[in-house]
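Subject: Predicted fold for RluA family pseudouridine synthase, 234 residues

User T.R. writes:
Posting the sequence so we have a shared reference for the thread.
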Amino acid sequence: MAEKISSDRIIYEDNHFIAVNKECGEIVQSDKTGDVPLIDKVKQFIKERDSKPGRVFLEVTHRIDRPVSGVVLFAKTSKGLSRINNLFQEGKIQKKYWAIVKNMPPKDSDTLVHYILRDSKKNKSYAYHRDVKGSKIARLEYELVGRTQNYYLLSINLITGRHHQIRAQLSKIGCPIRGDLKYGYPRSNPDGGINLHSRIFAFTHPISGDAIRIVADPPNDKLWEQFMLLGVDL
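User M.O. replies:
I've generated the structure tokens; pasting them so everyone works from the same file.
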């Protein structure tokens, strides 16, 4: 039987969209690994739940990296897909992330502006303070919202959506994300993921006009629980 997601991972759904809380280690779309992508698991869930005899229409609207958890939004209709793509292009979607880092950031809050250069062969991006050939400007805002004895929690408003942007920019300021070996953290996490979580995805619904705010709980582990117990403000 084809693999599907469990219903408790669906965090938003209407006639045009469905949002899922992605787990660390899942791929959103097919890649060379041959692992079952999240989109196929969601299609199978819809097919069985709605008793659909034919092909289920479902398209990716955006992606988050394999080791990252949190909100992923899929389009269930072509109309929804084209409209949400327009919102992305117009910068009208708010994406907030949580990141756990070991090192205290230089400031409690700041706007980071770098030029991101992607190396496709290494599947890695590099952040520069100046414009270099082939780079794209990258912007994010961060705020220190929690701390434990050993770690700091940053809330990040992602303004542009470059390849590995948050990971590269935080590494550039000396704050690699916990578990992110690729960007300078000394150790991997037991689950192979990193402590970067797509927490909030908010937009004005392009068809109904309703204000949509999708929130995904972080993975169920002790470190995330410590920050949740602190009553971290969204």
